């Protein structure tokens, strides 16, 4: 099947386009677990699909459907969220969506790996409060597939650095931060242990920051390899550093298209809000 030109699509990101239809996205688990397949569900919150332009666009990359959401410093604020103050993690985008006015939300995604209780296993800062220190330990699993890294920022400046780079060069605590792994792209090159298109497939999501300081959030709508996702960040989005956020449990809340993914319990959440000036 022929696929659309990604380059052309990306050039149209800033153009006025009709929002996506918001139809459910079919998700397929490949780990054999039942009852944890992420699916798109209608939100109980009032629809804002006809009121705001979506920050997310559907893209076909090498015959794989992706959703690309763009956060622009002049138009958006980024924050990390775990759960209500004094309580445990939300564990779902559905629970989180009930605490926010959808008209102020550009989109939200799961954003980092976590333990059985939904607590982050790596560095995590929310509202300038550090809830988890930097994790430099060795271990098994994607998080410990080094180099891993940190997505963080304060105000309009957002960055992605490897964990070692962050430890050596970042002294001030940011307003938000989440540590995950592996890095997908490091200094413009694929992670050394990631092949071009490996055999393992899963629903995956990640984030990259370009030279203009914009944050590109990508979630696959079908199982995808690490390599293909990494190459999309490197080759089509031209980001020098991109960080893997998670797989299988990956989900998106996009109020502009009434998309609210459900599935297995999640942990940290990244929230991208519209600035007041953007809604006037």
TrEMBL record:
Q: Which keywords does this Swiss-Prot/TrEMBL entry list? A: Signal
The stretch of residues making up the signal peptide is 1-21
Q: Which Pfam families would you find in this protein's record?
A: NAGPA
Phosphodiester glycosidase domain location:
104-250
* InterPro entries referenced in this protein's UniProt entry, alphabetically: NAGPA
Q: What is this protein called?
A: Phosphodiester glycosidase domain-containing protein
